[in-house]
Amino acid sequence: MFIKDIKKAEVDLKLLNRDRRVNVAETEKLQRMIDRKKRHLDQQVIDDTGSYEKNKVDIENVIEWSPYMKVKRFLDESFPEYSSSLLDSISDGQYESKKWMSEILKYWKFGSKEPWKIEIAGSWFGWPFIELLEECVTKIESIDLYDIDEVCHEVVRKYIYHFKPKYKINQYHDFFERGDERIRHMIICTSCEHMPDIATMKEYYKDTPKPILALQSNDYVDLREHENCVESYSELAQKNEIENVMYQGERDFGFYKRFMVIGTW
Ligand SMILES: C[S@@+](CC[C@H](N)C(=O)[O-])C[C@H]1O[C@@H](n2cnc3c(N)ncnc32)[C@H](O)[C@@H]1O
Fold it and tell me: Is the confidence at residue 189, as pLDDT, over 90?
């Protein structure tokens, strides 16, 4: 081969490499445009349908799109005086105590024979606990939420719109004012310190099957609204007439202790 042929081959190779670099850059530019468009369309679907897809975590700004942020923005605008309460409901301490309950409930993985009917007394904003509860019960038929605060109902309606649960969520006001006899598989109250004992409503629950009670209270007596604190999990069980204890425990949260009992009447 002549040296001029080698030189020509080198020049051709350089030209080919330059073209390849241009092509790669163009392809990357196009890919970025497609990704931007896709994100825009995804956001539009979420906005139009209100649906929240958990797999959106790999896309930028996921916090901004989460139902929690959307509900927070709604509260900031409509009920600013509730904004701090919403932040409290998703704070580390509150989440920790709900997680504790769900981790224990998960052990049984209830509801495999028939879909479960559940009640939550003093449900506050419902979420994030409802999300955790879904991991504990195979199939949920309905959840009755009780809260005397109408703004909590508004917030729950927003969460329902964004999370779109597959089961029914019914909202009631005072837990102690409902007077129909009913079958419920589980009664949850993580706010026992805020209200009379759940056992005062025992007569309204059929025992076919006996409902499982999952209760939390605390010894934080310094807050005016904490009208029914306890000093131990045994006291919580005894005040709520729980005879068959499936779990009892306590957690130290620094300036107060939280107690939990799970069991049946
Ligand atoms: C501040 S929140 C919950 C705090 C608790 N640490 C928790 O994480 O569940 C207590 C809720 O109980 C509600 N509540 C108090 N008495 C009630 C009653 N008799 N029936 C239904 N809800 C009640 C209040 O309106 C409030 O939203």
Answer: yes
pTM of the model: 0.80
The helix (run of H) or strand (run of E) holding residue 144 is strand 140-146
Cis peptide before 209 (omega within 30 of 0): yes
Going from the Cα of 86 to the center of ligand 1, the distance in angstroms, rounded, reads 13
Residue 87 in contact with residue 72, Cβ under 8 Å? yes
Q: Tokens for 240?
A: 């709520």
Confidence check: pLDDT of 145 > 90: yes
Contact 56, 38 (CB under 8 A): no
Range 91-264 has CATH code 3.40.50.150: yes
Q: Which residue puts its alpha carbon closest to atom 3 of ligand 1? A: 191
Q: What is the pLDDT of residues 41-62, one digit of tens each?
A: 666 665 555 554 544 544 455 6
Main-chain dihedrals φ then ψ at residue 139, nearest 5 degrees:
-135, 125
Amino acid at 191: S
Ligand 1 site residues (CB inside 6 A) read: 94, 121-122, 124, 146-149, 152, 174-176, 190-191, 194-195
Q: Where are the domains of the chain?
A: 2-65, 91-264
CB 155 within 8 A of CB 77: no
CA 124 to ligand 1 centroid distance, Å: 6
